[in-house]
């Protein structure tokens, strides 16, 4: 991400402008200043489970290492897409899975190995709630998810003494949902008191067609966690990699234990 003009803060943009501001703002930051969110939801007849994953680099070269790892994988396996719908990774991370999506039996283990070698960390938050609740509960749900991820990120920053990222990028929704998520993010952030430089962290939304590779990693992580919660006994190498890179504390631990005990 080359250097550019000074990033514009969210308070200088209208809600409509914010839907596409992430790519422009990101261009003014160094790669190590940007973290990414992955999200997934599972709904049954009477309940819904939301998973949110925050993914951040631990060294300045992390995201360039990711791009290089994909280039090596493309050189080794080719870059021709397989038949659509063979693996769940095609939807979660089309660029990362493309070199191996013709090998459905190996795609998860291959991507898990790729992520395992990267210097990055994850924070995971899980919220379960009943379907049909009032719309006023949406901001509570989003705030809980952001709080779970940001608390783990704050704890990591304290222990590692690493400088905080300046921007968190999530996939864009409509303008109303984006503003609700931003409000929940700000409220969750305001509850953190131990890391002063985290107070300037911004939330941006990515609406362009080409998704950044780190966002695909975070989305792979979120879907893998969701799949584990639904089917904890099934092999899930990407989930195991996420767990190995998890920054504690995390609400996921309690939720995972609850699920496994059933």
Short descriptors:
262 residues; five-stranded mixed β-sheet; 5 strands; 16% strand; globular; disordered C terminus
Layout of strands and helices, then pairs:
Blueprint: H1 15-18, H2 22-26, E1 34-43, E2 47-57, H3 62-77, H4 89-92, H5 94-97, H6 107-116, E3 120-130, H7 137-160, E4 167-171, H8 175-190, E5 202-206, H9 213-230, H10 237-244, H11 251-260
Helix pairs in contact: 6-10, 7-8
User: What portion of the residues fall into strands of 2 or more residues?
Assistant: 15-25%
Uncertain residue segments:
1-20, 253-262
Oligomeric description of these chains: single chain
Helix content: 40-55%
Distance between the termini: 46 Å
Order of helices and strands: HHEEHHHHEHEHEHHH
Shape: globular
Q: How many strands appear in the DSSP assignment?
A: 5
Annotation field: number of helices? 11
Compute the gyration radius: what is it? 18 Å
Classification by helices and strands: alpha/beta
Largest sheet: 5 strands, mixed
Strand order of the largest sheet: 3-2-1-4-5
On the 0 to 100 scale, the average pLDDT is 83
